[in-house]
Structure prediction request, 395 residues.
Amino acid sequence: MYITGSELKRRWNLTGDNPTQTVTYFRQPYGQGVQNLGPMTTQTDQVLNDFEGWALPDFHKRLREGELIPFTPYRKLTISGSCVACNWDAWQWVSGQQVHHWCEPEWYFPSTDWLITSDELKAAANIALSDKYVTNAAAKIYSEGFDALTWLAELKDIRHLWKQISEKLLFKDVPRNMRGLSFISQVKKRVKAGASDWLSYRYGWRQLYLDFKNLNEAINGLNETRSRYSKRAGLSQTSSNTTTTIVPQAALYNYMKVKTDKLTVSYRGTVAADIEVPEFQFSPLQTAWELLSYSFVLDWFVNVGKTLSAISFLAGAKAYTASRGVKVTLERSYEHYPCDYKSDYISGGASMSASNIGEFELREPCRVPYFPHFALNIDDTKIVDLVSLIIQRLK
Prediction:
């Protein structure tokens, strides 16, 4: 049974969706000398807080009583940043005399590139990409048990592993494999043997150790009773981008704009369920997939194995509630300063520096998917695995 968030009762809206700004101007004291006017400083702040959520009646009481509380929608948007611009007096030689140039701050700083808009944050929040992590969370719950059928089906491979390692230890295969080969052929043979040894470790001995470890945990857990599970899965991705632009401005100098954005997007799937996970599991579909040649490679790109575990979870769950979520964090730094001074320019200029951070978090109830999703799951170790597989298949 899928528990929905049908008991939505209350909503908060702290502010509107559009950023608000407060601007203050102040001029620092004059320096000594008639011609030194001193700088004018402009400070601009951007502040936005927007929250939307729901509350369930008697939430804490129902939680204490052990009720499976459904996930409810949630949305939060915050932006906080400030910009300080300093406009110094500018001097220029004209007919052998110093001539003072002064402009108001808005003349020099019309740029609003440092501001973060809610549309920027929302555009990066593709919550549909979190569906695969809901699948992974459900698979984690069902994987609490021991996959006995797959373990029994793979026992036949243990004999091959022992035979292979005994030949390596006793060097029985060296004369037979290397006799009469050229140096290049021997190197190729060694590389291919090394790739085979790596795969034997990764998907043979290592997996055998994990199977016996899980078997021991399953035996120790036979007397334990547990019916409530909660698991979470997710991924965070971070990217940075810096743009530099030279803008022709006044007759005295140009402007350099430097903007750096650091974007972090976190995807998350959460599942809570009332389910009695069997300590020893017999799932024919999952076992058939595990025994399929190179199925583990396909799982790097499409989460078929996780989906089969999630389907087994759905078959055994008495009740469950699930949610998918995404959180976007954008950190922005911005600088705007003069460059390319003209030959007759003496001193002064205008500069600005700003920092801003915006966060957008979104959560919504969902169902555990029945179908696989594209899920690229590649790291450095799996790249080595893939290269070893290719080497092993070469003639």
In short: DSSP finds twelve helices and eleven strands in the chain. The mean pLDDT is 76. Residues 183-220 form the longest helix (38 residues).
